[in-house]
Amino acid sequence: MKRKLLKQMRNEWRENLWLVMALTIVCLSVWSLFLILWGEIEGVMEPLGFEAKDVYTLKLEMVPEDSPEYNDYGEEKDAMEREDRVSLMRQIRGNVNVEAAAWSSNFIPYDFSYWGASLNLADGEVDSIGYSANIRRASPDIAKVLRLRSHSGKSPEQLAEMLSSGDVLVANSYGDEKSLSPESLLGRVVILSYDSLNPYRVGDVIDNVRRSDYEMTWGGMAVIPVDDENPGQMWDIILRLKPGKGAAFAEELDNTPAMQQHRNFYFSNLKRLEDLRDARLREPDANVKTSVGLMIVFLAVILLGLLGTFWFRVQQRVGEIAIRKVCGASKGAVFTRIISEGILLLVCAGLISIAVVFFTVRYGSIGYMEFQTPAPIILSGIVTILLVGSGVVLSIGYPAWRAMRIEPAIAVKSE
What is the pTM of this model? Predict the structure, then answer.
């Protein structure tokens, strides 16, 4: 009766070995599910780099040349088209409901476009290491529209002034270890890998404007300024309305011809950025909800399995529990001994699981384990051990509590 717990467990090694194997499989399964779910929602925990509320987008369209409404510009086509674009933008900016508006090319969040290029130091070799970036072009007010977030504490208005002076903004970079850091470019003169004739000065580092709530952006981002008076072939406008003025602006746009069209150019397809987000991320949202639902069901099944396993194991020891109580052991001591046995089994299973995961991460090539840092793997492991440990304690504790309430005489009657 005075045998040590470890000696008792060693004597029952066959049964305990199967339990350790089962707990190891449970731990690895739960750990894997957490990593898969983390991979799906990892981006949610990172800053988006912009504020979507009260932001709208407009599409600039052009009347077809074969349309009877088409105005022939003649030899002044380029100048007059530029005048049309600028005139329409002035109408938008002059509206009392508009806080800021900007021309945009590849700068609307949730459009999932990627224009990759490299920013190279102007005083270095062209083929030397550069800064990999998603190139986003916009007029300076884009900083106020999306409320870009400076790492140096500058306001969106100050960032807009930088863009107006011709500076570019670079963003924090993810995943590309061969790329220069954005901080190393600060204040330096750079050139685009495909345009060596136009140098730019890097004015500030900002948060990366991500393409999705879920996606972890690869590489960096560069904001290239566009001249408001000469926007070139820009077809998108992104604007921030004053709070609660969305309906009023839409009504004015519908009822004001000067805001809608100027000669051959006209606006269409007014959309809230939040609506665009809902439309584009409907499938990822559903996938995450499905994953969470499946995980809950899986965890419930695991808990029931643990409860059944340890309930049967405790029931087999009702006689032993009774004898210990008769020999003077307190209920607390007996309960602690039974719980400790389950915890030791879990510790063994946890150590094996850690070894398997370490080996897989170190030498394997499982896609969902390729995170930016080891933090997700470590945190998922901790949560897994705590969750499975709670299941083990509950699965042992309740049947043990019931077993200790049985009178010793009744418990050993069948022995």
Answer: 0.76
